[in-house]
Structures are given as C-alpha cells and as structure tokens.
Amino acid sequence: MGKNYVDIEDNGGETLRYRKHVNGRGLVAHGARVDAGALIEAGAYVEPHARIAAGARIARGAWIERDALVGPGARIDADAHIEANAVIGANAHIGVRTRVGSGAHVAGDALIGDDEVIAPGLTIATDKRGLWLAA
C-alpha cells in the first residue's frame, strides 16, 4: 500500500504536507480540520486551517484556501475555488469553476451557479432558483 501523504512546495518555497482524506482521497493540509463524514474527492485540495464540516462534499479539482469554512452539507463542485477566510453556509451549493473571493460569505442553502465570481468580502444569499437576493 502506498504512502498516505504527499509533500508539495508552495510558491514561497515552504513545503506543505498533505494527507489523503479517508473519504475520497483528496489532499488535506496539516492543520486543516475536515470531518470524517465529509467527502473530499481525489484531486481536491484543502489548505491549512480550513474547516470542512460533516456531510460537505468537495469535488475533484476544487481548492479550499487557508482559514475558509465550508458548512455542514455544503457542496463545492469541480474546479471551484474558495479563497482564504471565505464562509460557505450549511447546505449551500457552489457551482463548477465558481470563485468565491477572500472573506466572502455565502448564506446557508444558497445556490451559486457555474462560472460565477463572488467578490471578496461580499455577503450573498439566493432564492431556491439561485437568484441573488438583495442584502
């Protein structure tokens, strides 16, 4: 059986160690907290100090940056990028290739479509069809 971790050098020359999550084999950095009931698919990355709650699903190619929070039951689709300090509420759905900016907050049960860009620091909620609601 192969090793259960991989070391990757970041842009600053620091080597980070990632372990393969037991549920999905995605890479989780040392210092991140990922519930055992979350699914982190192979090819997904969770950076240090990020938190992923129970029942969350992080798809292949998704990237969860430092200090981001993904709430219970949230779904992050393929190649989505959740930047540092962003918060994704419970049962929210982030579409394919969508970028959620640093410090942004996506409300629980929000439906964010594919190829969207949520500006840094923005707080957003949607109706059941994914239409953005006024704050």
What does this structure look like?
The protein has a single domain (5-124), classed as 3 Solenoid (UDP N-Acetylglucosamine Acyltransferase, domain 1). The chain is 0% helix and 34% strand. It contains no helices and 19 strands. Strand 2 (15-20) and strand 3 (27-29) form a beta hairpin. The relative contact order is 0.11. The mean pLDDT is 93.
Q: How would you summarize what this structure contains?
A:
With about 140 residues, the chain is mostly beta strands.
Helix and strand run = EEEEEEEEEEEEEEEEEEE
The value of Rg in angstroms is: 14 Å
Largest sheet strand order: 1-2-3-6-9-12-15-18
Any guess at the CATH architecture? 3 Solenoid
What share of residues are in beta strands? 25-35%
Number of helices: 0
Which structural category fits the helices and strands? mainly beta
Q: How is this fold's topology laid out?
A:
Layout: E1 5-9, E2 15-20, E3 27-29, E4 33-34, E5 39-40, E6 45-46, E7 51-52, E8 57-58, E9 63-64, E10 69-70, E11 75-76, E12 81-82, E13 87-88, E14 93-94, E15 99-100, E16 105-106, E17 111-112, E18 117-118, E19 123-124
Parallel strand pairs: 3-6, 4-7, 5-8, 6-9, 7-10, 8-11, 9-12, 10-13, 11-14, 12-15, 13-16, 14-17, 15-18, 16-19
Antiparallel strand pairs: 1-2, 2-3
